[in-house]
Sequence to fold (1131 residues):
Amino acid sequence: MRENLERLKLQVASELEAVESSAELDALKVKFLGKKGELTAILKQMGKLSAEERPVIGALANDVRKFIEDNIALRSEIIAKAELEERLKAEAVDVTLPGKQKELGHSHPMTHLLDEICDILIGMGFEVVSGPEIDTEYYNFTALNHPAGHPARDPQDTFYFNDEVLLRTQTSSVQARVMENRKPPIRVIAPGRVYRKDEVDMTHSPMFHQVEGLVVDRNITMADLKGTLDTLFKRIYGNDAKIRFRPHHFPFTEPSAEMDLQCFACHGEGCRVCKGEGWIEMLGCGMVHPRVLEMCGIDPNEYSGFAFGLGTDRMTMTRYGVNDLRLFFENDIRFLKQF
Amino acid sequence: MDLSRKWLNEFVDVSDISDKEYAHRLTMSGSIVEGITDLGAEIVNVVVGRVTAMERHPDSDHLWVCQVDVAKEEDIQIVTGAQNVSVGDLVPVALHKSILPGGVKITRGKLRGIMSNGMMCSLGELGLDLHNFPYAIEDGIFILQEDCKPGDDIRGVIGLDDHVAEFEITNNRADCLSVIGLARETAAVFERPLKLHTPQVNGSGGDINDHLSVKITSELCPRYAARVVTDVKIEPSPLWLRERLHASGIRPINNIVDITNYVMLEYGQPMHSFDYSCLDGGKIVVRTAEEGESIDTLDSVKRPLTKGMLVIADESKPVGVAGVMGGANSEITENTKTVVFESANFNGTSIRRTAIALSMRTDSSSRFEKGLDPENTIPAVQRACELVEILGAGKVVDGIIDINNAEYKPVTLPLEPDKINALLGTDISVDYMIKALELLGFQVDGMMITVPSWRTDVSRMADIAEEVARMYGYDKIPTTLVRGEATVGGRSGREKHERTAGQLCRSLGYSEILTYSFISPSYYDKIALPSDSPLRDSLSILNPLGEDTSIMRTVSLPSMLETISRNYNNRNASARLYELARVYRKSQEKLPTEPKILTIGAYGDGMDFFDLKGDIDAIISGLGLSSVKYQAEHENPSYHPGQCANIKVDGVTIGVLGQIHPSILANYDIDVPVFTAELDYETIYSMSSDKEVKYVPLPRFPASTRDIAVVCDATIPAGELIDCITAAGGKLLSEAKIFDVYSGGQIPSGKKSVAISLIFRKNDSTLTDTEVGESVSNILKVLEESFGAVLR
Fold:
């Protein structure tokens, strides 16, 4: 028996060498350690042994069992590792093949800039409000201090539905609506569509976009207006952006100004982008005209305010280098996907 | 307004200021300079020459070989083909290496073997015409009759040594549409003295009232002044006057007409001259036109007049459209002997409307329409008469007719330095304020300001603040941030919700489009909107740009289909698009409603009804609504009758989706299936904002799933089966989901097999098989009763 056990040990060692897969290993385990396995078969003969031999052989048999188990476990580990490697190798993919496409949609370029402007001003305490696009001539003109007969009221510039109702020509129409309904401090912006009777060409459209800003409170100054716009434009165009204010005329602000941005392409030298001027006209602004405050029931002796109206269409054009405004309204998917 | 810098210097000497600095300083003070042109920039190396000798070219019967004194050591030799030159003539000479207008380069060269060292020039070669120099001839050398000598730069001799600034003047500053007005601004900006001149008229006796009477019958003419000149001799104006008109962009005509234009430019007061002999009854009547009247204007066009247009008439007929253009019937001609000068003030709005209605905006009307100073009429007519005397153009009859209904009273205002500084955010001294105002023509007496008559735009403190600020310099105003009570900025819930809608669409692959709010009425036919649909009742623009943009859209589908059509016809294989924008619908109120519609459209890339439906499900749930139901819609004429559904939440229709009807697609030249959805954003928003999110505890007991397949009529909508199952399943059934629909094979024709996964769960204990079995049997029983559906 002792010999049989010793032989079994050798046989296991040699057969384990040849085992390549976990299936073969399982079979080998059954062959040697199973109920009908070889070790069991040998141990079944234990009864024939003398009482002295029995514990000795028994101990030996346990050693052999342990030897077999340990070696199988060792072999199992090696095989599992090899098999994993094999599997990983088989599962390898060409990572340079394209992914399964989930295409995202794009915001319209006009929306990009509009959102950016609104986000910056929201950070400065402005609230976003809106007003009707079809409005009365009162809110679009009268409340903005355009006297009867003012050229802007002409049907050659403004779309009318009847004597009283029109398509707003400026987001400033929201000003009086806000001031009638709120008490200062007022700090609002009103983005939206506006309409003027311009034929469609590379730089004109009868429908375009503006962002109106309005601040009314005690002690609001023209210096505040400059500071607010300076911050806005530095946030959009970077800290080295330079702006300048020129006197201008609008019926609903006094003093009034136009704001120019130093050309970002040539830094004021004069180039094609700025048509040689060095500056690009950006917006109209000013201190809210005391008449406008009065008409909304706000005492101009107690309160002052500023307003600005920023046209975003041409700003979007210059920002992305789009030279034809019509592209924005044609909505070709190849155009939209670029933004 | 084109301003001659030479003319400007007569009123304020800024000859030492460069064009660039001048343009910058004026622009920054509010008078925008769009550019400055050097009138002589195109002429280089052209001088005055005197012809000292001439002889025939030996090899030509028409060429002359001339010796010309150009004030060099030796006369130069020039060969010319012109026949109007004589010895002793002064002529313009383009020297070797000179440049003429149009970039023409002149160099020396041989003409039939004889050296020619330059060229004698005609008027045209110098960029001029007979209006500039009436004494010259058109085809021949320009023989100079000016006070000049050989060697002089030709530009100085013919008035092209001038620089012209082009101003863009804002509507409130009609006074700056004049040399004097801009000189005043210039003087104030550079703080230099302004030299003004009061016209002096000697007069020649007589009494204007013996010649002329004037009557005003309309309120549209606040003031009318006139003077009469007799013994008029019509001839060209002198060079200095012609030069200034030319520099200002006005063509010289004759002395009388030129004087009126000169005064308009100098004073900003448009003037008119009538031939007195053409005024019936020696009368001028300022009145509105009668219905049916017409007039032939100076530009030889017959203009029908409408009631209410202001005209200048005599006893019997209109002789001019007031403030716009004179009539041909009273035009100054070479035979004119007696002239009436008109210097009047008219209502700006009336003049503007008349000019637009007659489509003739003139230098005159564009000034009047901004509202002019009635006080300027007399100085202007005096200046005209002074020029008549200076030019020796006629005899000025004594007396001025001046009908003045303007009742001008000077505006006075307190000077409030503290309020001005508070508004500007500055610390400007009172002394500076007074100096700036005085430079601009305001009178400051103690702390009272008298506004000059020409500044009709100044009436309160804010206006004074602007005057001070623009002289002080906007760039010197500090930049500060708004102080005071802090405000909470941000977007409203509605704004945020709209942005979520956009984000959902983009994350599902749809790109945002922007389309016009106005459409063509024909667009409703293109989508087959029923002729009796209330949505055809659009707001119409009274004065549209064209038919295509003449009404406000009440629906958004046409805009989406136009966009898809454009993409398809631009050969884009697929597109997924959305727009969240307003439509415009009439209401009982004065203003219409402007609800927003979320429109989604797609074609190509294997898109089908269920792709879109899945996306719509995602968008609606992302916007906060649940239990969405789809109801087959067979009658919507824009959509495929078998692939269209109304979308409902809690019984409320929130939109429609489907495949566009092929015959509609044909209207848009599209021949691939197009899928669209129109979601009523207002309803979605109002329903979603009512919803409150409430936590439901997670299930603690396992669910039990049973799959069943039933066979029923193919026409029964699957959605109805699910509704029926949901009702029959009772509390235990937590979800019923269709996972397969099959017909053909062993399924009898006209039937279909629907496979449904049923998930049962109890919240307080584990389900038993018996419980599930009972529920399934009940479901099957009800399915059979309701639809004749049997277990497969």
